[in-house]
C-alpha cells in the first residue's frame, strides 16, 4: 500500500485467479478449461486473420460476432441490438456492475459464488449482501424475492460456481418477476454442460441480463471473449460504459475466432457431450471411492470425503502432478473442485485418489 494509491484501491481485496502453473506435464484440473481445444474452424479463422490484417483496427462493434450470436438465438427474438461482447465474460461482468448494478443500494449474490463479484463490488463501490446457500448448497430463489428497490440488483452464476449446482428456469423466472425494478444478471459461464439457458426469457423480462463466455464450452479461454444477451436498453448501458473505457474491446483474431467458434455448432455439441459423458463417469468413480459429489451441471465437480481432509488430498494430488482447486472458505473447505479433463486425465486423478485413500 502506498500514499499514491486511491482509497478504493487501498481497500480492495483483489481477485485471486486459479493457478496457471509454469511446470509442463501437470494434469491440470483446476481452472475449468475445456480439454478438447477449440473448433478447428476457429483456429483456421484466427490464422487467416493474423496473416491478413493486424495492421488495421478491428471492427469497434465486433459486428460479425454479434451477428453470429444473434443468429443462434433468432428464434428467441434476439437481434444484434440485444447482444453485447467483451474481453472475456469477466470484462462483461465488470461493465455490468458499473452500468446496471450501481444504484446506491446493496446488491444480492450468494455467499458461496464466483469470487470476482465481491472484487467488482469493491472496485466500483457497490455495496452487497452475501446471501447464504441452502443446506444442500443450492441457491434458493425465495431469498431473492420481494426486496423492491431496497436492493441495487441481483447477480448469480447458473450453474453456480464453485458448486456446479443448477437453478431450474422456473426459479430464475420467479426472481425476475419478484424484482421488476432491478436488473437480474445470470452468469451462465457453465450453462452449456447440461443446463438450460435463460436467453429465451429475455424477450419477456426487460430486467434480465444473461452473460456467457467462450472460455469453457467453446474452449477459447486464451482468446478472452464473453458476451451478454438482454433487452436493448441494458445493452445500450453496457455499450456506453464500454465506449468510455476502450473503443475496441476485441482484437481482430478474437472477433474472427469467436465468430467461427459460434458458427461451428456441430463441434460445440460433440465436445460438450464428451465432457458431460466424462463427468458422469467421474461422478460414479468418485462416489465409489466414498466421495459425496454435489449434482453438477458444469464442466467440473465439487466433491468431499467424510474421512479425508480436502486440503491434504489436494496437496497429495499435487505431489503426484495433478492440480485441482481447493478453497479456504470455511463452509466449503472440505471440498475439492475438479475440472473434467479427458478420460485419461480423469482416470489418472481417480488412480491417484485411490492410492491416497488406501
Ligand atoms: N463467471 C464464472 C462463474 C466463472 O467461473 C468464470 C471463469 N473464471 C467467469 C465468469 C469468467 O470467464 P471468462 O472471463 O474467461 O469469460
UniProtKB/TrEMBL annotation:
<dbReference type="InterPro" id="IPR004839">
    <property type="entry name" value="Aminotransferase_I/II_large"/>
</dbReference>
<comment type="subunit">
    <text>Homodimer.</text>
</comment>
<keyword id="KW-0808">Transferase</keyword>
<protein>
    <recommendedName>
        <fullName>Histidinol-phosphate aminotransferase</fullName>
        <ecNumber>2.6.1.9</ecNumber>
    </recommendedName>
</protein>
<comment type="pathway">
    <text>Amino-acid biosynthesis; L-histidine biosynthesis; L-histidine from 5-phospho-alpha-D-ribose 1-diphosphate: step 7/9.</text>
</comment>
<dbReference type="InterPro" id="IPR015422">
    <property type="entry name" value="PyrdxlP-dep_Trfase_small"/>
</dbReference>
<dbReference type="InterPro" id="IPR005861">
    <property type="entry name" value="HisP_aminotrans"/>
</dbReference>
<dbReference type="InterPro" id="IPR015424">
    <property type="entry name" value="PyrdxlP-dep_Trfase"/>
</dbReference>
<keyword id="KW-0032">Aminotransferase</keyword>
<dbReference type="InterPro" id="IPR001917">
    <property type="entry name" value="Aminotrans_II_pyridoxalP_BS"/>
</dbReference>
<keyword id="KW-0028">Amino-acid biosynthesis</keyword>
<dbReference type="InterPro" id="IPR015421">
    <property type="entry name" value="PyrdxlP-dep_Trfase_major"/>
</dbReference>
<dbReference type="Pfam" id="PF00155">
    <property type="entry name" value="Aminotran_1_2"/>
</dbReference>
<dbReference type="GO" id="GO:0004400">
    <property type="term" value="F:histidinol-phosphate transaminase activity"/>
</dbReference>
<keyword id="KW-0368">Histidine biosynthesis</keyword>
<comment type="similarity">
    <text>Belongs to the class-II pyridoxal-phosphate-dependent aminotransferase family. Histidinol-phosphate aminotransferase subfamily.</text>
</comment>
<keyword id="KW-0663">Pyridoxal phosphate</keyword>
<feature type="domain" description="Aminotransferase class I/classII large">
    <location>
        <begin position="25"/>
        <end position="353"/>
    </location>
</feature>
<feature type="modified residue" description="N6-(pyridoxal phosphate)lysine">
    <location>
        <position position="216"/>
    </location>
</feature>
Amino acid at each position: 500500500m502506498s500514499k499514491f494509491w486511491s482509497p478504493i484501491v487501498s481497500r480492495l481485496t483483489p481477485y485471486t485467479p486459479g493457478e496457471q502453473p509454469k511446470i509442463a506435464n501437470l494434469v491440470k484440473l483446476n481452472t475449468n478449461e475445456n480439454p478438447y481445444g477449440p473448433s478447428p474452424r476457429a483456429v483456421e479463422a484466427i490464422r487467416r486473420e493474423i496473416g491478413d490484417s493486424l495492421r488495421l483496427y478491428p471492427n469497434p462493434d465486433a459486428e460479425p460476432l454479434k451477428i453470429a450470436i444473434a443468429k443462434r438465438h433468432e428464434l428467441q427474438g434476439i437481434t444484434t441490438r440485444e447482444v453485447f461482447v467483451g474481453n472475456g465474460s469477466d470484462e462483461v461482468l465488470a461493465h455490468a456492475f458499473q452500468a446496471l448494478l450501481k444504484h446506491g443500494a446493496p446488491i444480492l449474490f450468494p455467499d458461496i459464488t464466483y469470487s470476482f463479484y465481491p472484487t467488482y463490488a469493491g472496485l466500483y463501490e457497490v455495496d452487497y449482501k452475501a446471501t447464504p446457500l441452502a443446506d444442500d448448497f443450492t441457491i434458493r430463489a425465495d431469498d431473492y424475492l420481494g426486496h423492491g428497490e431496497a436492493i441495487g440488483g441481483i447477480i448469480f452464476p447458473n450453474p453456480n460456481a464453485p458448486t456446479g449446482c443448477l437453478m431450474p428456469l422456473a426459479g430464475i423466472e420467479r426472481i425476475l418477476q419478484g424484482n421488476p425494478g432491478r436488473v437480474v444478471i445470470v452468469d451462465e459461464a457453465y450453462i452449456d454442460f447440461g443446463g438450460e439457458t435463460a436467453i429465451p426469457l429475455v424477450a419477456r423480462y426487460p430486467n434480465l441480463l444473461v452473460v456467457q463466455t467462450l472460455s469453457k464450452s467453446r474452449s477459447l479461454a486464451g482468446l478472452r471473449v464473453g458476451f451478454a444477451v438482454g433487452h436493448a436498453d441494458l445493452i445500450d448501458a453496457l455499450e456506453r460504459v464500454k465506449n468510455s473505457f476502450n473503443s475496441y474491446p476485441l482484437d481482430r483474431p478474437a472477433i474472427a475466432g469467436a465468430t467461427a467458434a459460434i458458427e461451428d455448432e456441430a463441434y460445440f455439441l460433440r465436445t460438450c457431450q464428451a465432457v458431460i459423458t466424462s463427468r458422469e463417469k467421474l461422478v460414479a468413480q468418485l462416489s465409489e471411492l466414498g466421495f459425496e459429489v454435489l449434482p453438477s451441471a458444469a464442466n467440473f465437480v465439487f466433491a468431499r470425503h467424510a474421512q479425508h481432509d480436502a486440503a491434504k488430498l489436494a496437496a497429495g494430488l499435487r505431489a503426484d502432478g495433478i492440480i485441482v482447486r481447493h478453497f479456504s472458505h470455511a463452509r466449503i473447505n472440505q471440498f475439492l473442485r475438479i475440472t473434467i479433463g479427458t478420460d485419461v486425465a480423469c482416470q489418472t486423478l481417480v488412480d491417484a485418489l485411490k492410492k491416497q485413500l488406501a
